[in-house]
Design brief:
Layout: E1 3-14, E2 17-28, E3 32-36, H1 43-50, E4 58-63, H2 70-75, E5 76-79, H3 91-101, H4 107-116, H5 130-142, E6 148-152, H6 160-173, E7 179-183, H7 187-190, E8 196-201, E9 204-210, H8 211-216, H9 221-228
Parallel strand pairs: 3-7, 3-8, 5-6, 6-7
Antiparallel strand pairs: 1-2, 1-4, 8-9
Helix pairs in contact: 3-4, 5-6
Amino acid sequence: MSAIIKAQRLKKSYGKKVVLDDVNFEIEEGSIVGLLGPNGCGKTTLIKILTGLIKDHTGMIKIANEEPGPYTKSIVAFLPDKSYLPDWMRPTDAIKYFADFYSDFDKDKAERMVRDFGLDPSQRLKTMSKGQQEKLNLILVMCRQAKLYILDEPLGGLDPAARSAILDLIMSNYAQNATVLLSTHLINDVERIFDRVLMISGGKVIVNSHVNEIREKGQTVEDVFKEVFSYAW
């Protein structure tokens, strides 16, 4: 199986502060990968490089053998950690916006999922709870037929019951043979869906393992996280 993401000697600094330092990894097509690490470890910077928001880095990063740019944006569905939709929008407006903007967006599926998740299609975002807004944002992203889904903290504003429903949404709605890269702090809630985990510390990838390899050692992903980042607890 070929790699959807390749990084070699990737480095990014802000002034004298090195945020990513000689990062090397590959992610296979068709896998769900957890991107894990404490605050300030470099996860967000890596995501911004992958999505083309940061370009002044050194080293190589490729998505489907292409550097981040117009083509990769057409095959990547990105969910940032903060909503970017204007407050005046309603779910019906947001769905129309995505349908106009993305040729791979499934409008009928999005309308159905808005109803299934109990959202009011005519309610303005400014009157929605944070959890309702996050559900809508995730629905919009998952209704694209992308090759790579990058989800930055998709569960942060949700209660435990809603997290399970959102994970089921992710598992049952991403495109066949696509890849999901999911950044989260809620490891215990999410690790059941991971095929592989990348753990970053001090700007370096320090764990890059299949979850089955971790489980064969009698550990959970959270066990490994606590061992690696004991200083953060």
